[in-house]
Amino acid sequence: GGKSWDGLWIDSHDHPVELDALALLKDVLPRAMNLRAIIVERDDRLPELSCLLDEVRAVRAVVRDAMGAA
Q1: Mind listing the pLDDT tens digit for each residue in 40-54?
Q2: What span, in angstroms and rounded, lies between the C-alpha atoms of 31 and 62?
Q3: Whole-angstrom distance, CA of residue 48 vs CA of residue 32
């Protein structure tokens, strides 16, 4: 994710994981044979813990689906 600020694109981690990012992850995982970690990062606008855990579960589901199909 990111945001525009004063004509610049700033990398930020202040929004939920987007569906496009999950789709990209699903496409990349089968080729990422040495992958050891995926980080769900939030450095601003922190949600309730339950919301953050929902994002982690969504990422885990993508990993299970993608790696099971590989």
Answers
A1: 988 888 899 999 999
A2: 14
A3: 31
CB contact burial 35-62 (16+ within 10 A = b; e otherwise):
eeeeeeebeeeeeeeeeeeeeeebbeeb
Q: Count other C-beta atoms under 10 Å from residue 63's C-beta.
A: 15
For the whole model, what pTM was predicted?
0.78
User: Alpha carbon of 17 to those of 11, 26, 33: distances in Å?
Assistant: 13, 13, 22
Mean pLDDT value across residues 14-29: 91
- Beta-carbon neighbour count of residue 11 at 10 Å? 8
